Amino acid sequence: MALKARKSSIWAQEVPWQLFLNDVLPYAILSENREDWRSLLWEKITPLVHDAENLTSVGQIINQHMWSLWSPTIRFVPNCTPDILSPFQTITAHHASCTGLSILLVCALRAVGAPARVAGTARWNTSTGGNHDWVEIWDHETGWSFTGPAEFNPILNRTWFFPYPAKNQVSGFDECNGASIFATSWAPSPEKTFFPMVWLANGISGSCWPNGTYVNAIDVTENYLSASMEEENHPISSDVLQD
C-alpha cells in the first residue's frame, strides 16, 4: 500500500527515497497497537487530496477535513493516553488526547504518501511544566513544518505552543529529563536519542522506560528555537532528515 500511494501522485513520487523509508513506509509511530491502518486511511483520505498541488496542501487539507469524515467528528479529549492511542482506537472512540490525534494524523499523511512524524516534549520549560505531542509534515520546497492535530491553522508553524513555550525549550536533554523537543525517526539517530513516551515512564532513576521499550528520535529543539515568528509560512528545517 505504501508503494501504491507513492505511485499515485507527482508529489508522492518526488519524496526522496531515504525520507520515504523513514517517514512514510513505517507501520508504527510510537507504542500504539499495531494495526492495518494504511488500507482504511487510503480509502478515506485519498479523495480529499486528489487535487492537492503539493505536500503542504496535502497536510493542510487532511488536518482541516479528516476529522469530520467520521460521525461524530473526532475531537480532542485530555488524559486519554495510553488507553486511546492507535488509529483504530481513536476512530472508534471519536476522540483522543494530543498523542492519539497526532498518531492518527501522521498515519493519514503516510497513507497517501506524504512524509510525517510525531514531535513532542516530555516537559515544557515553564513553571507549570506539562507534556505535549504534535505533528511535523514535510514538503519539497520548505522541508519540515509543524501543526497541531485537529487544530487547523491556514499558516503552518503557528500553534498555541509557538512561539512560547516552545522557544523556552533547551536542546540536549535526554528523553527522561524533558525540556527538549524530539521528532520520531524509524532509523536510529547518531546521538542515539529516543522519543519521550511519558505514559511509559516508570519513575526509576536511570531507567525511563520499562522492558526496554523505546522509539528512535531526533532532537529538533534548535529548529524551534531558530524558527521565524513572522506571520507567514516558514519551515523549521529545510533538510531532508536532519532536522
Shape: globular
Helix-strand sequence: HHHHHEHEHEEEEEEH
End-to-end CA span: 27 Å
Task: Please give the radius of gyration in angstroms.
Answer: 17 Å
Key structural traits:
243 residues, alpha+beta, six-stranded antiparallel β-sheet, two-stranded parallel ribbon, 13% strand, disordered C terminus
Structure report:
The chain is α+β, with helices and mostly antiparallel strands. The chain is built from eight helices and eight strands. Strands 5-4-3-6-8-7 form a six-stranded antiparallel sheet. A two-stranded parallel ribbon has the order 1-2. Helix 4 crosses helix 7. The longest helix is centred in the middle third of the chain and has 14 residues. The radius of gyration is 17 Å and the shape is globular. The two termini are 27 Å apart.
Question: Briefly, what is this?
Answer:
This protein has 243 residues and is of the alpha+beta class. Helix content is 26%, strand content 13%. The two termini are 27 Å apart.
Task: List the SSEs and their pairings.
Elements lengths: L1 H5 L3 H4 L3 H7 L13 H9 L9 H11 L9 E2 L10 H7 L1 E2 L1 H14 L4 E6 L10 E8 L3 E5 L34 E3 L8 E2 L21 E4 L1 H5 L18
Parallel strand pairs: 1-2
Antiparallel strand pairs: 3-4, 3-6, 4-5, 6-8, 7-8
Helix pairs in contact: 4-7
